[in-house]
Amino acid sequence: MSIAKYARFASFQSYEAADLRSFELISGPQRVCAKGQFLNHEGQSTPDVYRLRSGWLSCSITTPEGDRQITKIHLPGDLVGMPSMAREVAAETISALTDCVVDVLPLEAFSEIFRKHPRMAGMLFMWSQEERVRLMHQLTLVGRVPSVKRMAAFLLTIVHRVRLSDPEIGDSFVLPLTQQDLGDATGMSVVHANRALRILRERGYASLQKGVFTVHDHAGLTGFAGSPADAKRSTVWI
Fold this sequence. Notes:
By secondary structure, the protein is α+β, with helices and mostly antiparallel strands. The protein has helices spanning 17-23, 107-116, 118-144, 147-165, 179-186, 190-202, 218-225; strands at residues 30-33, 38-40, 49-54, 57-62, 68-74, 79-80, 93-96, 100-105, 172-174, 206-209, 212-215. A four-stranded antiparallel sheet has the order 1-8-3-6. Strand 4 (57-62) and strand 5 (68-74) form a beta hairpin.
């Protein structure tokens, strides 16, 4: 079984083989995207929804002043563009951080899940609440946490999600995010992002060198960031 393919299930204490089969109903024709390509533009009519098979994507919103705020980094196994299902136009811009393969999902696939697979529908609801908690945490980071701790917390989230996709990942992995991307994700300028990374490196917590991110002291980085533990959730009630 591909671990990345079902990485989203890793946040649950347990799941059944039938859950994986139901999840496979959320599929569609595949599309290959090159690094830098846009899949949706914010405000675009009839936006598509995707399932990310391989590669990294980013979602972002542009402010009236023209600044970009990255709202989500997507890894393999993620459903992408879901917020736009509630709107007539795309809620966000989706772009490829690396070469990617996605399924373009027909909305009828979700209708099938909601009508015939209520347990899977319940898991989709749980994932939506998981995203809500993540955005609450991100809002708090951007609004109330100093820049260096903000960067540490964001990078820890990425480490956690990368390891869900591939438990064999060690302390180092390729991080396809520029300092501009990191700044746009954490609400700081490139200069402040560079400074935050330098401080994390000088304190021996983590470093980003030539596109490779390395955690040197996971416990220290976690303690410095003050990130809350993320316990797995029960699905017994679904």
